[in-house]
Specification:
Length: 332
């Protein structure tokens, strides 16, 4: 975003950008409907040529039907920072990160979790594997492009997180990282992730991901597999926007069908990883519509199968993505 803004305003002063999304979601599971309005602002603030501060917050309300057959809804709210980090760009190959950051394990946590990016309202069943449940680390990381060539590139991220019981910056003592290979001609990315929990009963986590976006096509394929001490699983998601009837901005080109298949497998009965306590399979069928002005309508139907019972899940939502400078930049 900083690069796009600098391109528009030339060598302007370092102007912070405010971005994010506003959404309203509904979730109907086994006949019970929950309503979730949410605002998720993001701040990206460059400081000179080498420093960068970024943060994302969440402000949400949750309206859930009362239990035991009572009429009405229970109401709760949450306001807090998702992460807050400072980046030091040491060179074209090394960026040093400090603060509260999204754990670099797999792809969903860092790339797809924002509400204005995710195609489906729910994250994958295995989204907590490898990110130490909280999805956030408190400490430091080193990341960047190890090798960048015309035919391929390799990027990396390595981190260490301290233990923190702070309500705002809750994290577990852990370490790990991710390495990815990207082939630009094929538009194919393959990566491997590793994480280790260093507090309590120490555990290892392993993961792989494959992303493929064919050239000159609006088709995308994304997938992950992850394994922990007590469970493992995978998800595969495909989406497509038709381009043969007037391009992406035609009324047909704005339609985006999505399909995701996922499974989890218990290794033992210790459910410390937030995954289902029994083997589960789930198929998600989504149909999004990309309106003008960065507004999206999300709809989906899911069927989850497990020995504890099968369930239908219906979800709808609307999301608006905003982006503007904190103040007007000056030409130099």
């Amino acid at each position: 975003m900083a690069v796009l803004f600098a391109t528009q305003y030339g060598k302007a002063q370092d102007t912070p950008l405010i971005s994010g999304g506003v959404g309203f979601f509904t979730n109907t599971t086994a006949g019970s409907t929950t309503y979730l309005p949410i605002v998720s602002p993001l701040l990206a603030a460059p400081i000179g040529d080498h420093f960068f501060i970024e943060s994302r917050a969440a402000l949400l309300e949750d309206f859930t039907p009362k239990a035991d057959g009572q009429s009405g809804y229970d109401h709760s709210h949450f306001i807090g920072l998702t992460y807050l980090q400072g980046d030091y760009i040491a060179s074209s190959h090394v960026t040093v990160v400090g603060g509260s950051f999204l754990t670099p394990f797999g792809t969903y946590n860092e790339r797809l979790s924002p509400i204005w990016i995710n195609n489906l309202q729910d994250g994958p069943l295995i989204q907590t594997l490898g990110v130490m449940t909280t999805g956030v680390g408190l400490g430091g990381q080193v990341r960047g492009s190890a090798i960048s060539r015309r035919n391929f590139s390799i990027d990396y991220a390595a981190y260490f997180s301290a233990r923190s019981g702070n309500e705002q910056f809750n994290s577990k003592r852990s370490s790990g990282g991710r390495v990815s290979l990207y082939l630009p001609a094929k538009r194919l990315e393959v990566g491997f992730s590793y994480g280790r929990l260093l507090q309590g009963t120490q555990e290892n986590f392993y993961g792989t991901h494959v992303w493929w976006e064919p050239k000159d096509s609006a088709f995308r394929l994304r997938s992950e597999w992850a394994r922990g001490q007590h469970a493992q699983g995978y998800w595969v998601e495909a989406d497509y926007r038709p381009t043969y009837f007037g391009g992406l901005n035609s009324w047909i080109g704005r339609v985006e069908p999505i399909f995701r298949i996922q499974q989890t497998f218990r290794i033992d009965s210790i459910a410390s990883d937030s995954l289902p306590i029994v083997n589960s399979q789930r198929a998600d069928f989504g149909l999004d519509y990309n309106l003008p002005h960065n507004t999206r309508i999300l709809t989906s139907y899911s069927r989850q199968f497990s020995s504890s019972g099968n369930v239908n899940i219906w979800e709808t939502g609307i999301v608006y993505r905003f982006l503007f400078p904190a103040w007007k930049g000056k030409q130099k």
